Amino acid sequence: MVKIRNIELGEFPLLLAPMEDVSDPPFRALCKKHGADLMYTEFISSEGLIRDAAKSVQKLDIYEYERPVGIQIFGYDIESMREATRIIERTNPDIIDINFGCPVKKVTCKGAGAGMLQNIPKLIQMTDAIVKETNLPVTIKTRLGWDEQSKFVVSTSEQLQDVGVEAISIHGRTRVQLYKGDADWTLIGEVKNNPRMKIPIFGNGDIDSPEKALEYRNRYGIDGIMIGRASIGYPWIFNEVKHFMNTGAHLAPPGIKERVEAAREHLQMSVNWKGEGLGIAEMKRHYTNYFKGIAHFKDYRLKLVTSFQLNEIMDILNYIAEHENEFEFA
Q1: Known catalytic residue: 102?
Q2: Residue 267 and residue 231: Cα distance in Å, rounded?
């Protein structure tokens, strides 16, 4: 049984990666429904929380049905991160996660996210301060290092454990790589198999099939896998991986009706949470993924992304479901 303090996550948990503009409450609800064991919010700016910025505060929304759930924060100033931790604690998440992995330039240029990988002493100092600030378990999301010459994740993980971190998720790329090339899991395996390490180590990067998940579990011995991009528009990935690991067989992939139902559910929750205008607008990025691989679907996808009326979009989705025999997978 993999545990983060007293939070039981199962024998080999599958985690939903925190993804900006993706892993909001509606999307997390679908991933939970389809087998995710632990989820994290979109990353939240510590400075935004302190300023009471509306977008940052809204990201604190968590719901009982999605537990266990962690709230993820990022920042460069240690005192601001401590203050943000106190604000987060009042919302009663299960975990506080620190982002040392985001490679986006507007984050790293301020020294936050993966930018902290250029200053490991400060990274450890910040983590130590946050662990001491909260009674909640603290976890970390990070990368192998800043670049090829600074892949210090093995020694950094030891130091993080020493200051009280209770789990680490490692993306198998450096910051300089962004999301290019193949993720390198060899150092993730080294962290996990380091005899000094006692806390759960989760691997992240390029897991897009049940076969790869099983192969990497067996090859690297990690405690669980964090899945990000492969879950966008395809929350079924979690149960598909679990079923394959348990049985060696594949679950039947979702058909047209199941995809429509997921898109419809996602849309309705998005509208309920964000309001109709924003909820509809932010769903547009998901339709391509929900209906990926369906032949001759271009006209329907165009209708979905150009409509701004909830009833009209629901009518389009209902039509697709009712005429499922007209569609086939390419």
Answers
A1: yes
A2: 16
Locate 32 and state its tokens.
């939970």
The pLDDT value recorded for residue 131 is: 98
Q: How many angstroms separate the Cα of 40 from the Cα of each of 120, 218, 243? A: 24, 25, 23
Q: What is the pLDDT of residue 327?
A: 82
Digit-coded pLDDT (tens) for 68-111: 999 999 999 999 999 999 999 999 999 999 999 999 899 998 99
Q: From CA 99, how far away is CA 244, in angstroms rounded?
A: 31
CATH code for the domain defined by 3-247: 3.20.20.70
Give the three-state DSSP class for 54: helix
Q: Which of 102, 117, 131, 313 is catalytic?
A: 102
Q: Where are the alpha helices (DSSP H) in the chain?
A: 25-33, 46-50, 54-58, 78-89, 105-108, 120-133, 153-162, 186-193, 210-220, 237-247, 256-274, 276-290, 298-306, 310-322
Distance CA 216, CA 227 (A): 13
- H/E stretch holding 95 reads strand 95-100
Taking the domain 256-326, which CATH number applies? Answer: 1.10.1200
pTM above 0.90, yes or no: yes
Q: Which residue has the tokens 């929304």?
A: 61
User: Higher confidence at residue 54 or residue 49?
Assistant: 49
Cis peptide before 68 (omega within 30 of 0): yes
Beta bridge partners of 38: 15
Domain ranges of the chain: 3-247, 256-326
Query: Of 236, 276, 309, which Cα lies nearest the Cα of 33?
Result: 236
Crossing angle of helices 25-33 and 256-274, rounded to 10°:
140
Tens of pLDDT, residue by residue over 173-199, are 999 998 898 899 999 999 999 999 999
Residue 66 DSSP code: G
